[in-house]
Design goal:
The chain is of the alpha+beta class and 226 residues long. The chain has two domains: 6-81, Arc Repressor Mutant, subunit A (Orthogonal Bundle); 93-225, Trafficking protein particle complex subunit 3 (Muramoyl-pentapeptide Carboxypeptidase, domain 2). The protein has eight helices and seven strands; from the N terminus they run ααβααββαααββαββ. α1 packs parallel to α5 (93-102), α6 (106-126) packs across α7 and α6 packs across α8.
């Protein structure tokens, strides 16, 4: 099967229901049944099936038949998010324009920020220490730095006493979209960082944020115990 074109991927994710489906599957990190998706998203299974097929056609989701603990009965179909290897130089500006149109209102903007916080927590969870690891008196900056770096921020840390930490972000994963979508970009930027800080051990909170303090798109922030 030929790889779907970028515009097919963008169109598939431009629909709110399909975006929610794909996001849930990505965050789950495991095969999920239609019944679970229906319960989590509050939509009927018959409503979800054509959206899942569209995501499959776009190469974003895969499906497989899975039997339960017993071999009796028909196997159920489960769905998983597909990790796509993006081609170098792919332009996401069209995708950003489509998504920006979906979050033009205050309610949609708040929802997008909440989603960014969830992704921040997800990135922290991928590199979190073991649950039984000893928690030091200060924040675990190594985990936070790894999560910020994975997101594309190129962080630099500087402690200010035992509690306050100043962080310089020398790059932004959304920098190519700032000119046309600055308010949305900065809101998602902030939400992503807040999600990471809230999920650090021990939790931290954003005390100050100075976006785009110079022409190189550098941002500065300060974090304190939450």
């Amino acid at each position: 099967m030929a790889e779907p074109s970028p515009i097919e991927v963008h169109k598939a994710l431009a629909d709110d229901t399909r975006y929610r489906l794909f996001r849930y599957l990505r965050l789950s990190g495991r095969p999920v049944s239609v019944r679970e998706l229906s319960a989590r998203l509050g939509l009927h299974v018959n409503t979800l099936r054509p959206h899942l097929r569209r995501l499959e056609d776009a190469g974003l989701v895969s499906s497989e038949a899975q039997r339960g603990s017993t071999s009796v009965g028909r196997p159920q179909t489960v769905y998983s998010a597909v990790d796509r290897e993006e081609r170098e130089g792919r332009d996401y500006r069209l995708f950003a324009d489509i998504v920006a149109g979906l979050v033009s209102g205050a309610r949609q903007r708040d929802r997008a920020i909440a989603t960014a916080r969830e992704w921040g927590a997800y990135l922290m969870g991928r590199s979190a220490p073991r649950p039984d690891a000893r928690i030091s008196s200060g924040p675990n900056l190594a985990v936070l730095q790894e999560a910020l770096a994975e997101a594309g921020f190129e962080p630099r840390f500087r402690r200010r006493g035992r509690a306050r930490v100043d962080i310089t972000l020398r790059d932004c994963p959304f920098r190519d979209l700032i000119e046309e979508h600055r308010d949305l970009v900065c809101s998602l930027h902030r939400g992503l960082i807040e999600g990471m800080l809230a999920s650090s051990r021990p939790p931290m909170r954003l005390a100050a944020l100075e976006p785009l303090v110079d022409r190189t798109s550098v941002c500065r922030l300060s974090a304190v115990p939450g």
